[in-house]
Amino acid sequence: MFKKFWLFGPIMGVISASIAALIFTVWDWLENPGGIFRDANGTNWNFVYDTAVSWFVPTFITVAIIASAGHILFSVVLLAIRRRLSAKDDRFNT
C-alpha cells in the first residue's frame, strides 16, 4: 500500500465504477423505461453501452480522486504517529 501509493485511488475507482455501472445498467435494462433498452427486435446494445459509460466515467473520476486524497491523508497521519512513537521510544531508551 505504501510502495505504490499512487495506484490505490485508480484501483478503487475502477472497482467502484465497474460495480456501479453494472448495477445501474442492469437495473435500467430490466426496468426498460419507455422501451429504450429493449423491444420486440431485441436489446438496443448502443443504448446499454452509453448508459454503462455514463455511469462508469463520473464514478471512476470521483472515487479515484477521493480515494487518492484519503489514502495520502491516511499515510501522512500514520507516518506522523509512527515518528511520534519512535521519538518517545528513543527518549525513554536513553
Kindly summarize this structure in a few lines.
The chain is mainly alpha-helical. It contains two helices and two strands. It has a two-stranded antiparallel sheet.
Would you write up a description of this structure?
A hairpin with a 2-residue loop joins β1 and β2. The chain has 94 residues and is mainly α. The protein is built from 2 helices and 2 strands. Helix content is 78%, strand content 4%. The protein has one domain (18-93). The protein is rod-shaped, with a radius of gyration of 22 Å. α1 runs antiparallel to α2. It has a two-stranded antiparallel sheet with strand order 1-2.
Question: Topology, please?
Answer:
Layout: H1 8-31, E1 38-39, E2 42-43, H2 45-93
Antiparallel strand pairs: 1-2
Helix pairs in contact: 1-2
